[in-house]
Amino acid sequence: MDDSNWYVRIKSLPRTRDGKFSPTLFERYQRNEKALLAYMLEMYISGVSTRKVSHIVEQLCGTSVSKSLLTAELDPMVKEWRDRSLSETDYPYIVTDVLYIKVREDNRVISKNCHIAIGINEYGYREIIGFLIQDGESGLTWSNFFEHLKNRDLKDTKLVISDSHKGLVSAIRESFTGVSWQRCQVHFMRNILSYVPKKDSKTLREAIKAIFHYTDIELARNAKNELIDKFSDNKRYEKACEILDDGFEDAFQYTVVAKGHSRLKSTNVIERLNQEVRRQEKVVRIFPNTESAIRLIGAVLMDIHEEWIGSNRRYIQF
């Protein structure tokens, strides 16, 4: 039997809190409609009358419900999913990023950050393994997020993929001892090219882009050294060459740790996820409180997570 297919079938089965299988229609409905429940709650919060929302629910479900009932149904589901144990699966590769949201607090609109992590499991499938809404993006908030994951028994991580935010990189080094960090190549290349003058620089730009096509670190390193030898003496290109040289090793760790799987060289997968969450979240624009943000974002992430698991499509091939 194919281990990966076994994994997908087991992960897609509904479970109760005690871990027993419970393929009831009600629980299936709860999983599939959690995003819809979140929108209904936000309609209440945004000022839509109870009567109108109850009418929508009645048309879809055959019964009207109150805001308190919807909240009582959804909040425990989001909390249980967010805090679930990760002990049953190994996640050798983690991709992480932050999503900025606006929340109303004490009659003030403030910025909060939603830290999100995607895990690529031992069979090559992707899962959303955690999210946490906090104040600010600092080394401390990232450390809190990583501790949240580790407290849920995250284990056997080999590579963390992210951008180069100073606080984030520091937290990765401290929280994941012995784990490699893959700097997002897309962000890194943009950073390098931002220091290359646009005029008369086509040759250099093409040479820089060519380096990032390599999936063998030795070939990439040789190409990088040749480029620096050729262009670093030119003051117009000195800074770009310096940035390339300093950040090169971190940007090619996936070629060593992750067997050159090209999908692990950037944060594209989580940026697409963030775009989907943002598309859903912009209907609200400003959350009335942190709890409502957890409710809506959590419900959307749960829905996407279930879709990924049910698709039976590997993100990377081993």
Topology (elements, then pairings):
Layout: H1 3-12, H2 25-32, H3 34-45, H4 50-61, H5 67-82, E1 93-105, E2 108-120, E3 126-134, H6 139-151, E4 159-162, H7 166-175, E5 180-183, H8 185-193, H9 202-211, H10 217-231, H11 238-251, H12 254-257, H13 268-281, E6 286-287, H14 290-311
Helix pairs in contact: 3-5, 3-14, 5-14, 6-7, 8-11, 9-10, 10-11, 13-14
Organism: Virgibacillus alimentarius
Protein name: Mutator family transposase
Keywords: DNA recombination, DNA-binding, Transposable element, Transposition
Give your account of this protein's structure.
By secondary structure, the protein is of the alpha/beta class. The protein is elongated, with a radius of gyration of 23 Å. Strands 1, 2, 3, 4, 5 and 6 form a six-stranded mixed β-sheet that branches. The model is unreliable at 13-17 and 19-26 (pLDDT under 50). The longest helix has 22 residues, at 290-311. It has helices at residues 3-12, 25-32, 34-45, 50-61, 67-82, 139-151, 166-175, 185-193, 202-211, 217-231, 238-251, 254-257, 268-281, 290-311, and strands at residues 93-105, 108-120, 126-134, 159-162, 180-183, 286-287. It is built from 14 helices and six strands. Helix 3 (34-45) runs antiparallel to helix 14 (290-311), helix 5 (67-82) crosses helix 14 and helix 10 (217-231) runs antiparallel to helix 11. Among the domains are: 3-87 and 291-307, no CATH class; 185-257. Helices cover 53% and strands 14% of the residues.
